[in-house]
């Protein structure tokens, strides 16, 4: 009969107790770290809210009229004359403002709401704006469609679509003669109707969607034929920005860095650990006198999971990648030639014939465009160039939102306390004990909600979407199912 001595039992008990104590200490430490991380995230949110409040309060004069436009955080005006009733703009739907033009004019770097604009010229010599206007905005379906995507919609009910707001924001930096838009054939007519100041020669029509590298590369190749020293800035047509001076300052810095042969991106200060955006890791400072905030890009990071995103924010060394790039057109083509030579050569051949004649341009597009690689600018040149220390970032402080789904859209709309946001005519929405979420009464019929919270209801004449705010990122799965099930005409 074997037995275990008392000292051995005591030793084993002590060993188990020690292990248990170590485990509890580890768990406790993890809880403390999680609590600390939550506290830091909360402090970031509070700091961001405080900054936005200061911006709003700082842009009020003694009579309460607005002197600037805090953009995404500004409630829609209450006056019926200033509030559009539908996100679908018509030539007559833009608000007509009965104010003396000598005293007030639309703020050119924001949401086109009425504001006093005391600044002088903001033109940046030699700077060309490129606005890629593509994508169907599938996460905003059925409001956004392939034939009428989100950049053509007035998603803030201020009388201007997203592409019009983008134009208003950027035009003082370049002028219509140096502002180009790249779009597909289905959207050319609508863009020209919404932007009558756009020169037809500056609307570059791509036959089919080829991702951002082909679109931006085509614009760069055409513009460098017209001006070999052109510096271009690419800004998406469907993003929202708040903070006029901070945006201007970031772009001006980016231009100065671009002159030194860098591909420059503008990094957005993250307000929360988002899993829907890519991230830029900040590297060493460049030490440029005219661009004191500029740094090298250490690396680009794909959309992370929640835990990784929180860890990124905790370090303070990461910024959101908003897809804004500023560089010499010739330098971008040089990078493209190094990393994607076939794509470079194809775009150069098209650009060489672009301004010759309509027939020459169309022949080149028909012959070359279908064979071009479909790839994003980040993957094609930004990521490999960052490894070679040729990508810089200007950390910025302005507010930014890509309006990527109905959840983010609802944050941009005004609402009564504990009520759903309404995009459209609020008289068509009836609620009882329903809080949060967003309702789009696009069909013209009454939408009634009882005892449900955080719902997304998009009622269009030909289809109805009902989901929860928590699952708004998954709407694109329904778009795929519609296509597979024979409902392509609703896309």
Task: Write a structural description.
The chain has 491 residues and is α/β, with parallel strands linked by helices. It has two domains: 107-404, Alpha-Beta Complex (Spore Coat Polysaccharide Biosynthesis Protein SpsA, Chain A), CATH 3.90.550; 410-490, no CATH class. 36% of the residues lie in helices and 19% in strands. It is built from twelve helices and 19 strands. The protein has helices spanning 6-58, 162-174, 188-194, 211-226, 244-258, 306-315, 329-339, 341-354, 358-368, 377-387, 406-411, 475-484; strands at 105-106, 114-115, 127-133, 179-183, 203-205, 231-234, 240-242, 263-268, 278-285, 295-301, 318-328, 391-396, 399-401, 421-422, 429-432, 438-441, 447-450, 455-459, 464-468. The protein has a five-stranded mixed beta barrel, surrounded by four helices. The chain has a four-stranded mixed sheet with strand order 14-16-18-19. A two-stranded antiparallel sheet has the order 1-2. It starts with 5 loop residues before the first helix and ends in a 7-residue tail after the last helix.
Write the layout of secondary structure elements.
Elements: H1 6-58, E1 105-106, E2 114-115, E3 127-133, H2 162-174, E4 179-183, H3 188-194, E5 203-205, H4 211-226, E6 231-234, E7 240-242, H5 244-258, E8 263-268, E9 278-285, E10 295-301, H6 306-315, E11 318-328, H7 329-339, H8 341-354, H9 358-368, H10 377-387, E12 391-396, E13 399-401, H11 406-411, E14 421-422, E15 429-432, E16 438-441, E17 447-450, E18 455-459, E19 464-468, H12 475-484
Helix pairs in contact: 4-7, 4-8, 4-10, 7-8, 7-10, 8-9
Domain Nucleotidyl transferase: 130-412
Region (Disordered): 59-79
GO molecular function: mannose-1-phosphate guanylyltransferase (GTP) activity
